[in-house]
Amino acid sequence: ETGVTQSPTHLIKTRGQQVTLRCSSQSGHNTVSWYQQALGQGPQFIFQYYREEENGRGNFPPRFSGLQFPNYSSELNVNALELDDSALYLCASSLGGQSDTQYFGPGTRLTVL
Amino acid sequence: AQSVTQPDIHITVSEGASLELRCNYSYGATPYLFWYVQSPGQGLQLLLKYFSGDTLVQGIKGFEAEFKRSQSSFNLRKPSVHWSDAAEYFCAVGAHRAAGNKLTFGGGTRVLVKP
């Protein structure tokens, strides 16, 4: 059974550019959640996808958007990058439902210059 | 709105000594509670979780946590710390939703282990 994988591992972009981060969920999991972890802070919930539909969103602007595909993998897109978007982006997959337990990938480190 | 407070930003403990990490939460109903560990530059690994039932839960790597509703706490403990336990620890509360939890994390506690 493979765990959650994310790509790329590291990424450097300049302000104003756009970026796409990818996540492959653990086998059998139909729910993917994305979190942003700024340096020295706890992760913050961006949004969650359940069976290809957005299922909840945190306090992030619309330039943060996502997709979930039929195989339950997911993308996080960020437009018009700002310096404050520099962070570790974590993806978590789960089975959903009331007793949901999220399993995290290793993250993508995004640096915006 | 749900929230989590981890009062200790850093804790230094000697190898072999006991460890207790504090976590206080705010949530309007019975919470789902989690502890995760993060090594430098890595993702989060689940240590243990509480959904219901026995308030003392056992996790991996010899960790345990106790849910105390009256104190809104979910403190993590380990009787004897190993050098490999040096990491950052995050407590999280999950909002119950039909399709899955939205996790709210505390700010984390960094644990340093002295030889």
Task: Tell me about this structure.
The complex is a heterodimer of chains A (113) and B (115). Chain A has 113 residues and is mainly β. Helices cover 0% and strands 50% of the residues of chain A. Chain A is built from no helices and eleven strands. Chain A has strands spanning 5-7, 10-13, 19-24, 31-37, 44-50, 53-57, 64-68, 74-78, 87-94, 103-104, 108-112. In chain A, strands 2, 4, 5, 6, 9, 10 and 11 form a seven-stranded mixed β-sheet that branches. In chain A, strands 1-3-8-7 form a four-stranded antiparallel β-sheet, with no helix packed on it. In chain A, strand 5 (44-50) and strand 6 (53-57) form a beta hairpin. Chain A is globular and about 40 Å long. The termini of chain A are far apart. In chain A, 41% of the residues are buried. Chain B is globular, with a radius of gyration of 14 Å. Chain B has strands at residues 3-5, 10-14, 19-21, 24-26, 32-38, 44-50, 56-58, 64-68, 73-78, 87-95, 102-105, 109-114. Chain B is mostly beta strands and 115 residues long. Chain B has no helices and twelve strands. The model of chain B has no long low-confidence stretch (mean pLDDT 92). Helices cover 0% and strands 53% of the residues of chain B. Chains A and B meet through strand 4, strand 5, strand 9 and strand 10 of A and strand 5, strand 6, strand 10 and strand 11 of B.
Q: What key phrases describe this protein's structure?
A:
heterodimer, A: 113 residues, mainly beta, seven-stranded mixed sheet, four-stranded antiparallel sheet, 11 strands, 50% strand, B: 115 residues, 53% strand
- Rg of chain B, alpha carbons: 14 Å
Outline of chain B: globular
Report the β-strand fraction of chain A as a percent range: over 45%
Class by alpha and beta content of chain B: mainly beta
* Helical content class of chain B: under 10%
String of helices and strands of chain B: EEEEEEEEEEEE
Q: What is the arithmetic mean of pLDDT of chain A?
A: 93
Largest sheet of chain B: 6 strands, mixed
User: What Rg of chain A, in angstroms, do the CA atoms define?
Assistant: 13 Å
Q: What's the average pLDDT of chain B? A: 92
What is the strand content of chain B? Answer: over 45%
Give the low-pLDDT segments of chain B.
none
Gap between N and C termini of chain A: 37 Å
Q: What is the chain-wise order of helices and strands of chain A?
A: EEEEEEEEEEE
